[in-house]
Task: structure prediction
Amino acid sequence: MSKPNLENTILRSLNKAQHRAVTSEASTVAILAGPGSGKTHTLTSRVVWLIQHMGYRPSDVIVATFTIKAAREMKERIGKLLGEEVEKKIILGTFHSIARRYLSIYGRHIGLESKFNIADDGDSKAIIQRICKRLDLKVEPSYAKAWISKKKAKGTPSVNAPKGQKNKQQEHPDLARCFAEYQDHLERSNLVDFDDLLVKCVELLRKNPECVSNVQTVLIDEYQDTNGIQYELMKLFAQARERITIVGDPDQSIYGWRSAEVRNLYRLLREYPETEEVSLEENYRSSQYILDISLQVIEEDKNRYKKVLRPVHTKCTQPVLRSLGSTSTEGEWIVSEIKRLGMMFGGMLKNEDVAILLRSASLSRHIESALGKAGVAYQMIGGKKFYERREIKILLDYLRAVHQPDNNDVIARIINVPRRGVGDVTVKSLLEEAEQAKISVWAVLCKHCRGERRASTNIRANMEQRLSSGLLNTIFTLRKKADAITKDGAVTLIDLIDSLLNQLSFKRYLELEYPEEHETRWANVQEFMNLVKDFMRDYSQMDTEELPEIDNVTQTKEDDILGKFLANVSLASDAQRDDGDGDKSSMVTISTIHAAKGLEWPVVFVPSVYVGSIPHSRSEDIEEERRLLYVAMTRAQAMLYLSCPLYGPQGLSNKVELSNFVAPFASKAFAARGPSIDKKVLESVAKILGREAPPEKRVFDNLPSMFSPEDDTFPLSPIDPKNSDGTEENGEQHYARAPKRQRKDAEKCTSGNADQPLFKTYSTTMEDSSHFTMSSLPGFMTAGQARSTISASLAAKENQPSGNKKVAKGSTHRDSNQKSLLGFVSKGTGAAGTGPPEAKIGSSSLGKQLQHGSRPQASVPIGISGRQQPILDPALAQHKLGVGKRPMRPTVAKPGQDGAGKQYPCFSSSPPRQPSPEEPENEPTKEASASSRPAAVFHSTTFTTAGTRLGVRRPVGMGPAPSLDRLRKPFKPLTMNRPKGR
Ligand SMILES: Nc1ncnc2c1ncn2[C@@H]1O[C@H](COP(=O)(O)OP(=O)(O)OP(=O)(O)O)[C@@H](O)[C@H]1O
Result:
């Protein structure tokens, strides 16, 4: 590309403020702007401008980024504009990589050999542990390591010469001693740790400014996250000409725990008073709704550096704050919403367009398991998949060994965990010995410990002793316990794992092995316990897995609970495994919020927005937590979903409250459920993403049968089991899972109080089938319904009045307060008003509503007190739909009706009917629309009956596929009116 052309290309892609920043001739330029305002874009353009237009040599330009990913992306963008040859000459990378480059070339000047090695985190930890032990220092090695690192990161004068500077440390004198010894060790070994890369580079450039005498300009990305030593380094890089450009956003400073200093911004403006400040005020990333709501969150921080941020995009859809009953329901809802969006956007939104951003990696388990169950591929950024985390792997290995000790690999992995002084050589010789004797390693160990085999040279007697008192005893004890596990719960899997944790002193083990992150790892262990609890609850209902008995074929009763648990885990982790060669682009991204910085996705979910999660219970800086939520929300381009369960991962003992960062405006600013997707939404999302909206016909044609186009599969007001019937025990069952036996649950529900929404606020055509004439169609009845119908039919023949009598089993008499099917038809009567109100999400409502398990259950009309009740009113029992009769055209909305009613993309199992002029009041009200459901699903019976093939079809006479707008016409009950509120 020729020079003027390139300049044009660059400048054309910029708005006015960006243009000013890119072409500024000031020595120091500070671009301070909000998320999505094009800071990175501007910085990249400035690099190109300075090289192309100002004629700087690429090798005289330093560009420092915060992450390797950001460096890579910037290289790519610059490479495209200037060519790879030019791009390669630019000194572009993270602070650490740039520092390493200088040290390897000029390190000799400060006594550093050019071939120095880098001590990684593990090396540093081991060195410090050895020092503390050797010198008997009275400090925790982990604390000492963190202390040393902090000292270095701050860039204090002591960092270069810690030895002998006794007055610098207020803390324990042993810390200073440890620091000095550690530094001494690194120097003797020609090692440089991560912090030293920066510290030594500062030392080099202070003493030898000529090393950077060529540097024309220095540009820094994500400036708000630089720490003290990085600030010093920036100044030293730029010392020859003092030309610096920084881009940053104080609202996105989220690395305080890594000694990042927001104060560096003020320091820069103070030390370089001539700095030209440019603010970028247009947000190109997010919809207006997303931006507005994110700003509401951050503006609560009254001490922040205020900036203007205007959306360039339209409102699009209102961000969602969804209330769910439990963390597992939350995971399931996210998956259902991802799938719904995929379908309703006709393939325009794919899995790779979705990110689930978590405050802490330990929250990922429910999400991972829901995605795994649904077969949705995902990738993790900023954290390992749950089952791959070290602490979880160890526990699973132990359980596997307990279950099947002859598994050599497992024994080899745990033989020295926790440390038992068994090295690789011993393990190798054990494996060889086992192989020669053709027995398992476990058997070899047992023989050694019983004295039946002589210790080989490598397996010394004292080691045998250690193994027998450690590994062998642990496994033996646990095996006994595992054998005692029974389904009745006298000894449970939880007891077994508790005992395992005790035997291994696992918490202590994590503290010693992972001094800096033992709390997170222990949180994962607790999460693992929750997983086991979930499994145990499910297990008690696992009778469905039994196979029917066959004559003369003996069955073995499967009561191996541990085995079943391990098999479940293996299957789940297999579903979660990255397919190495698979198409990574079709994966949903799960990321920590920290790791999502600087990135963007069309759709973003932020689960577990509750106090304790965000703000995090262990965080010391509440405003940094607020900024984290802000960063998460502003990653979203078109659609943003926040969610909050009633209870945290520990279940009923862990009731949570909506995060105070969103609570004050939750009810006004957020929608309570995912948006309806119509043509307008399709087009506005497409516009934001710069994509082509799919034709409506394609969307429509591809909707599968039994598909609900609305976010209505989960209740808007989840039932709080602790409030539902007063007994926590029941609640626990309720909360844990949607009970398998829906009848039982329905019975429970009928005894609730009318103030609380005992029923789910959603339903499907299938579940409400008993309210439709469809129930009377052949092949669409349960046995119970059939029995009731027959009885009802007989009763109708006898023309018996329903009366007020109590209903006996099998009787066709209705209870006095039970509405007949016709009762539902008559307007304003019956169950109207007893249904739950539309959920209002807010601090007051969240967590107070009742929660109803995780999956839809059959709803039962209020007043029907048990399964014996007739499902159909006698008068209607004889009502038949003529077989083969074509369903009529669904109700067409009248002009002036808004879209608040129900949508109609597919067909109900019930035949549609023509609008009736007598029934204007029966139009669903806004309230009713939440609880009535879209006629979005249909049953294959519809098609069988109508003599059509399976699949989404338009009824005869409907003409071409309706547009999505058309589909959004208010739902009208098809053959009868249902009371409001249901
Ligand atoms: N002038 C512009 N016109 C159109 N799109 C732009 C413009 N400037 C930036 N963008 C687009 O806006 C989005 C956000 O840009 P960028 O990532 O540079 O923002 P940022 O300020 O660095 O965001 P964050 O601080 O959140 O990381 C990108 O998709 C980018 O291509």
The first strand starts at residue 28 and ends at 32. Residues 13-15, 18, 33, 35-41, 249, 252, 284-285, 598, 634 surround adenosine-5'-triphosphate (CB under 6 Å). Residues 108 and 114 are 6 Å apart (CA to CA). Residues 461-484 form the longest helix (24 residues).
